[in-house]
Amino acid sequence: MRPEEPAQHARHTEPVPTLRPVKHARPRGTRRLKRPARPLGRGALALAVLPPLAAGVVWAMTSAPASGAPEPAGGAPAAAGPPAPLLTGSPRLYTPLANPDAYKQALKLTNSGTVGALREAAGIIRMVRTPHAVWYGDQSPEAVEKDARAVVRDAEIDGSMPVFALYNIPGRDCSNYSGGGAANTAEYKAWIDGVARGIGKHDALIVLEPDSLALVPSDCGQDDAQGTKTAARYEEVNHAVNTFAALRRTRVYLDTGHAGWHDTASIVPRLVKGGIKTATGFYTNASNHQTDETNAWYGKLISSCLAYVEAGGKAESCPSQKGPRDAAQAWIDKNVTTPPSRMKHFITDTSRNSKGPWTPPAGKYTDPQDWCNPPGRGLGARPTTRTGDPLHDAKLWIKTPGESDGLCLRGTQGPKDPERDTVDPKAGDWFPDQALELVRLASPPILPGRPE
Question: Which value, in Å, is the radius of gyration of the alpha carbons in the chain?
């Protein structure tokens, strides 16, 4: 990835054509470009960089379950209710090796010698030792096959299930902050086939292409009059769905953006075109900050609308997540008779949502970019496949907490983020200030007890 350019629309990967401002360019979406996944290691290795005494203190702090999120013998945090049906019997969730800069930050904190700094170092390490997604994008088919195979084999030894966030769709992110991806449909299909060969017969959960359906080429002025690129997008997503659905132990979920973006009636037709009938389900809030309650309600409405459409109804009749809940629930009770076991299930991203969405100061910015490294956010619920909701398969950390969303200028000329008075790291790089915010404001707390 190349350094940021000090321009309002700086890019984070290969140069891309400058986009004309368009009415439907995404104002509230999620953008990120991940580094290639690294070989996996064990949690104890995270402490090897620390001085012996500090390592002992940090180990003591991070070995116990986080307050508010007790962990059963299987390793996944417990919650009220049974495991979601489609994930019954699944192994615990997989933890990849963290961004090395997280350990550098922890080492720097321990060098201060204060109890508060040691606790913060422990919080950083505890955060990166929590299960989160392995991101792939921009590798060759051969490289991604090799990497995926290494992960699933490591996970099998570890008795866990990896979550793969695949991010290589052509025209990714409308060529904005996380632009890049495969050059064309044929290249993308070959890449997906490489991931599938790497996974093989192993357990895996696929978060397929964040923003691929919530932000199609026609949404940002990239398409021609015939809709060629948008049609290709649906072909690409369908190929991926069919490929992963053919694997015996792989579950694949499709993109819906988040509850502050598309209405239910808007996203459901896109899911249908994207192959939701064949997919395991869908996901919401990837890299965003909507609350658990909001995500669960949005997921329920989408699942209900999909069942209604499957039975012959029209998506435009489905209630919006932004309308009165009593009226929406009454509509569901009247129009949806499909049992939850036969409805499409969903997963949610809880990596940074404990404080909900950021509300920018009124009138301060021409483009607040409320999705982009918002201040004052905290870690959300620990990843788990036990949600207590028959439609809600899992709460996951899809976005890697502590990594930047990109250069956030909020409509200014930059180069500093005016809300933080600093130059934000490029997308996917470690952001120490944000990492500390997430740890300090985590709910439930990332460490047991309270700061002294």
Answer: 21
List % helix, strand, coil for the chain (3-state, nearest 5): 35, 10, 55
Structure tokens at 339: 């049992």
CA distance linking residue 204 with residue 321, whole number of Å: 30
Ranges 61-75, 172-186, 218-232, 250-264: which has the least confidence: 61-75
Arithmetic mean of pLDDT, 288-315: 98
- Cross-strand bridge partners of residue 347: 283, 394
Q: Which phi and psi angles does 437 have, rounded to 5°?
A: -60, -50
**Residues 31, 286: Cα–Cα separation, whole Å:** 9
- Side chain identity at 207, as an amino acid letter? V
Estimate the crossing angle of helix 52-63 against helix 100-110, to 10 degrees: 110
**Residues forming a β-bridge with 165:** 135, 207
Structure confidence at residue 91 (pLDDT): 62
pTM of the model: 0.84
What is the pLDDT at residue 14? 28
Neighbouring-strand partners of residue 400: none
Does residue 32 or residue 342 have the better pLDDT?
342
CA 407/CA 413 separation, integer angstroms: 11
